[in-house]
Design goal:
This protein has 287 residues and is an alpha/beta fold. It has one domain: Rossmann fold (3-Layer(aba) Sandwich), CATH 3.40.50. It has eleven helices and seven strands. The protein has a seven-stranded mixed beta sheet, with helices on both faces. α10 links the parallel β6 and β7. α3 crosses α4 and α6 crosses α7. The longest helix is centred in the N-terminal third of the chain and has 12 residues.
């Protein structure tokens, strides 16, 4: 049995699989903008826990039930990275980081840090590319201007319409009650964090202190991070891109979500983790 994390610093952590894990490396799930740890709760958390992983889903500061909502716009990507570091330092074994959308940007920035324990593996799921959000915003303005308008209004605290959430996140049919639940859980995002991801605090692969195995996954019908941007990320890290056929941006909540989970699981089984080493197992890309 793995004991709950003793010091969460006011951060919400959802857990699964802590009673009888069969794998030592914990998975830490990091959500994207406008969401919280709840986006992993129904599907990925129990699914990976059932396969032996101790699983943790973090609500970044001012997200979900974590502290700091009154100071949302004062937090940037570096604060989110520190949240991840604070949790990772409490693990006995190097964590596997799985970041979705903005969470993928947080993972990339985390890998620039020289921290212990080192990351065993990283998964960028529909991630903001290292080149930032500008390409995504321009593409969205052209293809789905109503979604971009609703996202901008959500930044100001307005509740996005369920139709905009459907258009932004999903390609496959989604139960109306599930969609209403997601709309009710959605929240504003930090202006500072969004600017960081657009111009001011982008990843620099040359500076990365950690070079763990990395899996890059996108979705065929993702309107926010289309496959072209996923291929850009893959080219930056000199790795292949894996595109889930028939999915939208919220692939871990969409009907058939198991396909993405299985892809990640199968890839993890191919990796070998030096669980006690002070250095990452190998470098997946060279600089």
């Amino acid at each position: 049995m793995i004991a709950p994390l003793p010091d969460r610093d006011g951060l919400e952590i959802l857990t699964a699989g802590l009673d009888n894990p069969t794998r030592p490396n914990p998975i830490l799930f990091i959500h994207g903008a406008y969401t919280g740890a709840w986006c992993w709760q129904d599907n990925y958390l129990p699914w990976f826990a059932a396969r032996g992983y101790p699983c943790y889903a973090l609500s970044l500061v001012a997200h979900g039930n974590s502290r700091g909502h009154e100071y949302l716009d004062s937090y940037g990507i570096d604060d989110y990275v520190e949240n991840v570091a604070h949790i990772a330092r409490q693990f006995d074994h190097p964590p596997i980081l799985i970041g979705h959308s903005m969470g993928g940007m947080v993972v990339q920035k985390y890998l620039e840090q020289d921290v212990h324990p080192v990351t065993a593996a990283s998964v960028l799921l529909c991630s903001v590319p290292p080149q930032g959000l500008l390409g995504s915003a321009l593409g969205l303005a052209w293809s789905s201007p109503n979604v971009l308008v609703d996202l901008n209004q959500a930044m100001m605290g307005a509740a996005p319409s369920t139709q905009s959430i459907r258009d932004a996140l999903f390609y496959r049919p989604l139960d109306e009650r599930r969609l209403d639940y997601i709309a009710a859980c959605a929240q504003p995002e930090s202006h500072r964090a969004l600017w960081d991801m657009t111009f001011f605090n982008l990843p620099n692969p040359v500076l990365m202190q950690q070079r763990p195995p990395m899996l890059i996954v996108g979705a065929e019908f993702d309107r926010l991070i289309p496959p072209s941007l996923v291929y850009m990320t893959a080219a930056t890290y000199q790795l292949p891109a894996h595109i889930l056929s028939g999915f939208g941006h919220g692939c871990m909540m969409e009907e058939g979500w198991e396909e993405g989970a299985q892809l990640i699981f199968d890839w993890l089984q191919e990796q070998t983790f030096d669980r006690e080493a002070d250095e990452p197992p190998y470098t997946p890309f060279g600089y």
